[in-house]
Amino acid sequence: MAGRDEETPNQRLARNVNELLGELRVAQAGVQILFGFLLSVVFTAQFRSASGFEKAVHLVAVLLAVLSTALLSAPAAWHRILFRAGRRDDILRAGNRAVLAGLGCLAAAITATVSLIAKVVYGPVAMAVVAVLVGLTFATLWFVTPNFLSNQAVRDTRPSPEPPSDSTRAE
After folding, report:
1. Distance of CA 111 to the CA centre of its chain
2. Is residue 105 a contact partner of residue 73, using CB atoms and an 8 Å limit?
3. What is the pLDDT along the chain (171 residues), one digit of tens a residue?
């Protein structure tokens, strides 16, 4: 098998699209589990007695899960529709943005859901604390850390500064 340095641009695009679609399978599983849980909650007796605020937070979580599902499944649909037309670069560019937005919606849906559970079990202060902690965890792990690692990689590939020449050294 040819190494990545020997890939043609079309082979690289095909590999990148396949990697994107593979990553989507992982995210979709999480969204589907959360969405199923959120849908089942409304049919419980306890949900019927929930406050208007709790029902609103639940609806927001459901809508975020729906939006996440739509965003995370869109690149697969685009691939199915556009790949034979040689539009892999468009699929990859738009798909990357859709996946990042979908992951953001998934993180927000999970944060809202866990926060609502904290509110029902422990009250509004716990809800606020849990929302901040869960939201920061997702933001850090999914968005801040990759940016940090990317910036580190850029710094690691920069040439080292030239050592001072003999004429500028103090003796």
Report:
1. 13
2. no
3. 455 568 888 888 888 888 888 888 888 888 999 999 999 999 999 999 999 999 999 999 999 999 999 999 998 888 888 877 878 888 889 999 999 999 999 999 999 999 999 999 999 999 999 999 999 999 999 989 999 998 887 776 666 556 555 555 444
